[in-house]
Amino acid sequence: MDELLAGSDVKQLETGDVVEGSISGVRKHQVWIDLGPRGVGVVMRREVGHGQQLEEGQTVTVSVIDPEMDEGYALLSMRRAAKDRGWDEVQRIFDAGEIVEISPYDANRGGLLVELEGIRGFLPVSQLAAGHYPRVSGADKDEILQKLNQLTGKPIRVRVLDVSRKDNKLIFSEKEAVKDDMAARFAELKVGDMVEGVVTGVIDFGAFVNVDGIEGLIHISEISWERVENPRDYVKVGETVKAKIIAIDKDRLSLSLKQMSEDPWLKEVKVFSKGDIVEGKITRITPFGAFVQLSPSVEALVHVSEMGDDDHIDPEKIFQLNEKKKFKVLDIDTEARKISLSLKQK
Q1: SS3 breakdown of the chain: % helix, strand, coil, rounded to 5?
Q2: CATH 3.20.20.140 fits 19-82, yes or no
Q3: Is 71 helix (H, G, I), strand (E, B) or coil?
Q4: 339, 269 Cβ separation under 8 angstroms
Q5: Taking the domain 97-178, which CATH number applies?
Q6: Rounded distance, CA 319 to CA 308, Å?
Q7: Which tens digits make up the pLDDT trace of 234-262?
Q8: Alpha helices, DSSP H only, in 97-126?
């Protein structure tokens, strides 16, 4: 028999071969496959693809697990064959740099779990584009997971970032998929442009805004002409805002809300003159002095040297927060937006 097989043109089955056959029988726990001149094989139910419909006479692709069992037939797997073909296709997609659409089936705190061509992979949080990136305060992991869960089942366009069949690794990137579009959009923007976007996250130092897929940041200092203690008092997630581009970084816009309107400081400061005696409310106390609010938009500084004649004055012993006192205006610098006050000269 060995001599007959050796002289035959029919290639003997080997472990790992991927071959085609027709279903000759469907049982409760097995599916029997007719491999033609190569004999007969069996696929155990656990090795059938999930949800795959099978009927006699149907042509299927299988992978050889064991070319010859003791009983004389081959042990086969449909699931492994699908996975083998999947790796080949994923590798081709990676080599070609193609953009594909996936729908995450689950999420964890690090990113999204996805599947392509039967191969399970991962889309890290760091590779999400601006529109999907979970902006949360203090990097709260539970809040990040909650936002990622909202993306499960939704289509996302991605590129394969890394693939290794040997290491069973498949990594995706949404950033890479939108990179070319982003470059084209960035080329159309310039500093000074007015743009519209949706607030995607509000944190302690500002707010993130999605401007047609491009990420923008409104720093806390650019939210309002007033002193902003909490950005959440001014903008909300999901709110549409109009802002001015004040800088364009590599992959992010720096935006300003306050520059969409005239600086009220320049208007309000006109009522004050050098030498005036003014009343203001203490808003901050520091070792070098105290800040005093003179009007809704005008804040001035009384330096520690202008609090008295003692060289070792402690501002916290002289002032209390929200206390109102009278001061003398020493200097007004409109260009630097600064007003100097004196307590001892009033």
Answers
A1: 25, 40, 35
A2: no
A3: coil
A4: yes
A5: 2.40.50.140
A6: 12
A7: 999 889 999 999 999 877 899 999 999 98
A8: none
